Amino acid sequence: MNPWIIAIRPKTLIASFSPVLVGNALAFHSSEYSWLIAISSFICALCLQITVNFANDYFDHKHQVDTNERLGPLRACQSGLISPTKMKLGIITSISLAIISGLILVTHSDIWILILGLLSIICALLYSGGKYPLANFALGEVTVFAFFGPIAVVGSYYLQTQDTSMQSWVMGAIFGLLNAAIMFTNNTRDIKTDIKAGKHTLAVKLTKEMCSPMYRAMILGAYALLFFSYFLGLWKGFPVLFTGIWVFYAQIISKRFENASGKEFNSILESTSKLTLLTSVCFSLSYLY
To answer: Which CATH class is domain 3-288?
Structure first.
């Protein structure tokens, strides 16, 4: 496989694709809906996600977080497939593409989108880099929740409508929880190596025994929020039924998480990503129906 494909981590791009898809679905019937904005928002979000992945690969190698004891998928810098110098060029390239696509969005919106864009780039780099990386202080899941949840969904909706809605905020929280669960699975798998590297993730702080209840709260909490918002009259029945059916899959995954160890978390990570993608596609299709 091409080393850059490994570094991009295609399966993780679901985290940025799903909330932007939902935000655009919510805004689709707006009279001001623009396909240019939609495509640009997808490109910008994906480039920001790739920036996070490249930066994580580079800085974890630099800080010796990634070692031969790693249980997760291959990392490009740690394995020697891509040199740190080339990875820095990759980071610059992905940021540049995010800025170019982001400028299209800014010209069709206002100062708030510019501020969010700049903040997204800063956090993409500070997640693993800098003197005090966010990931080292149990802030990884909080960061993912915010940027791959409310900011992504509400931001995508706002770009199309120049307004926000309670529906966009609720879906932002739902996908924030699902995407945070993806990050949490990754960190639970890496507890032992992160402790050795001095990386204090949320999973490290909670300890292995408390990780399962936290994971369950994240993914089942997302569907609980969907059902609760339905009873508040926020949705019609069909989108909730068509989307909410995946709560049974979420329950199965949470059972697997409870008994998992080591590399078994890699398959749970993949399943959680699939759950997020299926939820976003099913909701978007049923909402547009």
So the answer is: mainly alpha
